[in-house]
Every structure is written in C-alpha cells, then in structure tokens.
Write the structure tokens for this entry.
Amino acid sequence: MSGPLVPSQGAAPPPRAAAFPGPVRPAAVPAQPSSARPAPPRAAPPGPVRPADFVPPSYGRVPGHPTGHVLPPEAPVETTTRLRPVRDRRSAGRTAAVAVCAVLGFGLIGGALAGVWLAASEPGKPAEPAGYAEARELWHNAPVDTLFPRTLAGPHAGPGAAARTWTRIVVAPDAPCSSAVLAEGLRATVEPLGCERVLRATYTDATASSVITVGLVFTRADAAAQRTLGRRLTARPGQDVPPALSAPSTVAARFGDRQRASWWTTAPADLPVVVTAVSGFADGRTVDTPQPADRATAKGRTDAVAQSGLGHEAKGITERLEHLLRTLADTTAKEESR
C-alpha cells in the first residue's frame, strides 16, 4: 500500500524535541502483519522545521540531561569575537583614588629622600652610616671570639711595614665606664655622650716580648657627636693613657701602669665606638713617660720605646680592631635587612 500513513485515531501525538536548526529525518517503521497491533504513528512529512521541534545530533551523551545530549562546540564567530567591555560605574572613583594614593606615595618617598640628602648636607648633622645602629649593640650581641679573636694578624703593622701577629692571653668581663677601665680624660669626654660599656683584652706579639691591652668603648653617641668626638681625641700626655690589663701566670703578669710605654686612641666616624690600646714590655721594665703612638713611630727616634716598635704595636692593633668592628657591623646590618 503506497502513500503516507495516517496516524490512527486516539494515538498520542509525537514527542516534541529540543530546539536546534537542521533537517529532520523521520525514522523508518518496519511493516507489520495485519494481525499485529496497530502500527505506531509515523512522523509528519518533511516540511518547514520549527527550532522547537529539532533534536540535535549526538555530541556525547550526558546522563540525566533532558535530551541525553550536550551542546555542540561554539561557532568560530562566538569564540573569536572580543567581548565589549562594560564600564563599571565605580571605575572613575577607583581611578581617582589610585591616582591620589600614587601622588601621596611619591610625595612620601620624595620627602624621605630629601630628608636624607638634607641631613647629609647640613653641617653637624650627617646621615647615620650603614651599620651604625647595629655596631652599638655588638658588645652584647657578638661572641667574644668575634670581637677579640684569639689571633690577630697585622700584615704591615710593624716597623718598616713588617708583619705582626698578636695572640690573645686574657679577656676581662664587660664593665661600666669608670676610671678603673678608662683614662680620666677619655671618660670625661665620652660620658656626656652616653657611655654604654667597656670591653678589654690583652694580647702579646709572636716573640712574647711585648704586651698590648686593647679596649672597645661603646657609646650612645649619634653620628654628628661621634664625628666631633673623633676630632677631639688628640694626644694628651698623662690623661688618655688607657689602664693596663694584667693576667697572672701569663706574659702579662707584670704589665701594670708603670710598664705602659706607648698608647693610641681612635674614634671612627662611622662607628659609635672608641678603640684604645696601650703597649709595654713583657719583661716588666718600667717607662717614665708613655708616648703616643704617632710620636713613638716618628722618624729619627732612638729610644727603647721607638726601637722596640711599641708605638707600631699600639697603633697597628687599634686599626685592625677598627676594621674588624666595621666588617661585623656591615655584616649584621645586611643580615637584618633580609
């Protein structure tokens, strides 16, 4: 029998499918014998297809989806076209706030830099050197073997730039600033600045013929006061000779005030510290008048102090300790800034 099949009376209408454009191909219905149940209805003839009646092709089934299918990939025009930005009503206010913060930030940074430049250029108010604050705390933060190494080398510290090596033989406990550990003139000079603590140790040279007591005087002076202090510490015979530090059963056992032969004091401008040293003979011989190191190392001197190089010993070991403190302060400052 030819021709399209007409749905039987009372049959349910065909199910509606999800919308998607494209042709619809009705499924073929196999012929059934007349004695069988009524044939199921067939789809309507091809014609204009409404989007709501289209069943999309399968791009992968998803359990639970109403149609059992997922959507196909986006068309190229949908994946390549840039989205038009939507202007936020608050963007203008945010832009203004960011601009104000930037102006304030640059102003603060510029003010800080200007303050540093002005402090560095203003007479009597130098900028604090790097590591200055860290050096002030080294007396209780650094180990004793770091502040006073067991062995100190002075490659060009002796007469004629000869090499010197000093070995530590005694270390005194840290002490307050008093006449027992400081010369009277030096104590009167540093006390108004805030004398913090005094550390002392005694060394001997490689031949054990001389002994040298070194001192580190830590102060609370600011950079300007420290610079002034360095200029004021000139050689003042009989006033600034540091006390000697002796030690029983060592080569410094007989090193006392009468055995002090030469001395030196320095106050570096970049460290809140005064470094002192006083040298003498290890055999206990006395010296009538101790000589500042610059005088004991002058050319043409033929006395025993000059000939023995005790002025070179005192000056050389203070320079070495000053360099050591500067290195420690710089290292500490870099570690704390990390």
Observations:
- The first strand starts at residue 151 and ends at 154.
- The chain has a mean pLDDT of 74.
